Amino acid sequence: MVLPTVAVLLLAAPRLPPLVAVAPGAVPPPEVFRYLARFPRGRARALAASRLMVGTPYHDGPLGEGAGRDPQPRIRFDAVDCQTFVEEALALGEADGPVDMLAVLDDVRYAAAPSYDGRDHFVMSQWVPRNEAKGYVRDATAAVAGPIARLERKTVTAASWARRRRRPGDVDLPPADAPIGRFALPVVPLDRVLEVAPRIPDGTIALVVRADRAALPERVSHLGLIVHHAGVAYLRHASSVYRRVADEPLDHFVARNARYDGWPVSGLSLLSIRDASARVAALARAAPPTADARPGAAGK
Predict the structure, then answer these.
(1) Angle at which helices 277-286 and 98-109 pack, to 10 degrees?
(2) What residue ranges of the chain have pLDDT lower than 70?
């Protein structure tokens, strides 16, 4: 059997320091970027980066602005949640090296300059449309699922935002930064996901889209990357169930999610990671290295 080029490169990975050993606030050492440069920029490189993060401990909300309302570091690899795992894999798939890593990650996570109010907290209304516009991702649902896909919508008004359910730790934004508007994602219905799974390319982002609830401003509750091992599809994700980044068989994940009747899962929306070379080059020119991200600092 002839393995695809990406699989051969992954199997031939050199002995690299685990990303979990990188100190909070630091970027990975140069040898990580030299290894990742062997892969085509974008999806294939992000997939390779995600493999280096398997086993990383799960921690809810591990990234912040380094000060202010959320003083967690702006970059860290010793802990991830589902969203920051995808964001950091995506940024590693685009950055040319330690110098521009933080600038790319900030660009993926924020509407503009890093701030709590300007962070893309909500995936459906903020993270997806902004990163589509920036050129980092594009919809892959229609290409994979064809007529099986259906459009799922969410409307957030000023009134519904004011009446939203609030719990300790929930995102709280001023009205000017609230996710007000009408939003939509194409979705593969949960009971059809396994039917299309063999056609989903490795490294595709999968968003878990749940039923619309008037009291909730978001419908996406989880995200990860689709990978295949020996012809079997898995979801590589930072899981609060497994407490780490793990490859969970997709059929197991689908069956588990089908049992959640409190907030039912509608299905998966799929995003392809793009080659954003031009944007990354512009970011690198505009953002010289700073003390915010120290290349290769050793961790614990």
Answers:
(1) 110
(2) 1-15, 17, 287-300
Handedness of CA 94, 96, 98, 101 (dihedral sign): negative
pLDDT value of residue 99: 86
The structure tokens 């290894």 sit at 35
CA distance 202 to 226: 6
**131, exposed or middle or buried, with CB in 10 Å at 0-12, 13-18, 19+?**
buried
State the CATH architecture for 5-133+275-295.
Answer: Orthogonal Bundle (1.10)
pTM for the whole structure: 0.91
pLDDT of residue 18: 76
Q: What is the pLDDT of residue 135?
A: 97
Query: Alpha-carbon distance 293 to 104, whole Å?
Result: 12
CATH 2.30.260.10 at 136-273, yes or no? yes
Domain layout of the chain by residue ranges:
5-133+275-295, 136-273
- How many Å apart are CA 206 and CA 187, to the nearest integer? 10
CA distances from 271 to 74, 113, 205, 235, 292 (A): 24, 25, 5, 14, 30
